[in-house]
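To the structural biology subgroup,

Please find below the input and predicted structure for DegT/DnrJ/EryC1/StrS family aminotransferase, which we are adding to the shared reference set this quarter. The sequence is reproduced verbatim from the submission form. If anyone notices a discrepancy with their own records, reply to this email rather than editing the shared folder directly, so we keep one authoritative version.
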Amino acid sequence: MAVVRVPFAGVAGENESLLADFLSPLSAQLRSGQFIGGGEVAAFEGRIAELHDVAHAVAVNSGTDALRLVLRALGIEAGATGITVANTFVATAGAMISEGLRPLLVDVADDENIDVEALDRAITADTRVVIAVHLRGLPARIGAIRDLCARRGVLLVEDCAQAILASSDGVPVGGFGIAGCFSLHPLKNLGACGDAGVVVTDDDELARELRLLRNHGLQDRDTVVRWGENSRLDSLQACLLNIKLSHLEEWTKRRRDLAQIYDEGLSGLPITTPVVGGNAVHVYHRYVIRTDQRAELQAHLRNSGIETAIHYPVPIHRQPAAGDGSVEVAAGGLPVTEKQAAEILSLPLHPALDERQIHLVVQEMNAFFGN
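Predicted structure (tokenized):
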């Protein structure tokens, strides 16, 4: 096996670089005895709300719970239809199913995000909510989706799991629908040292419901006003996230700079590189290319010491769990989704990489294609 020269992920290096910053705040937090809620969580929520120019941020214990609890707080009746895409992580559809909704999967456009025209055709009288995914860190056509949902009387929730700091027409993602749901999994652009998530919203009542739901429905220590669950963000995770949040803008710029090297170095090759509209700011959680020679290219890069991955090789409607009929596919099928799933390849891109490593990937890809 070749020596790894370009690692796909940089979580360990990211945390190691911040150890000196972590130790004093973590020590203070440990000495305080405050491990649930408290000042670090409140500070994190305040900073996230300000970052997204919204009234509220509600921290929870995962991006999946962010989606689940939003759907529950909105009071959508069991059996109603929710629309999303099949090329996202399974949690998007899984959250709907766990809350009693029936996911209807529609096709995507060339940018891998939801096809707005396909969405329009799929909305019926049974549709209650659309979950628009900003895949890879690239905003969907979210302004058009917002307008469509408003016209058709359908709720819009944004799955921003991979897209913190992304924006469309100058507006941060998460601010177009009634709520934006973010994952803070360790591999995300802003990652905790464990599971974590956060919801942003301008809706006062929704924020109030979310704060109840994440804490067993407790109005106070002894009064349960609705049935909830335990989905609180730990104080220690909030402490770490507050430190990392101070670096997020710098890390995001680094991702965009490295992506530009890929864009320039891979131009002219018989592949598809990320499609970015003029009004969108892509934050490159993943840099994904498409090629009909994926297996061969991936093997060549692996033999050259370059790690890659596929996000995601099996669309949701092709997963074994979907065999029970719990998800539906829109009329006409998902031909674009299925074609892309057979061609996508995620190249290494994270702030811990240097320009030399990105140029090595470019060099090996040009060599593979004989350029």
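Summary notes: Residues 248-266 form the longest helix (19 residues). The longest strand covers residues 127-133.

Regards,
Lab coordination
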